[in-house]
Amino acid sequence: MALTKISGTVSNFREETEVKSAQTSNLGHTQFKTEKRINFRVGRTPVEMKLPKGIDLTDGDEATVVGTNSGGGIKAVMVRNDETGVAYSMSTWYVMMWAIICTVAGFATLAIFVGIVLLPIGLYLFYKGYQLIQANRMLLA
Prior knowledge:
CATH 2.40.50; 2 domains; globular
């Protein structure tokens, strides 16, 4: 999907924490995996983004969003707070590292059918990494 870039004033900013999983060890310690779901509007356009950590953005800030069109809004790949100059997204290197691991493991295990699952995951992660690189270029332009 093609990336879209919009800029404007942020309104209706909401940040929610979703618990993705909980794991309890033998010692009774529980470790939670969480994800931040961030929703706001830039002008009249609704924006949704998921990240492992929160972002420093609030109502009234000027922001630039790069993402894909999704149901009348934008599913953000990268958001930049234009007042502070800080951009928020998944780490490109992290995504590309997992893409390489899944793709190589997928090719290596293709004979035992595990690769049928890992190979498409690796290719999808390469696509998402390429999207992050494009979004970064669009924010710099």
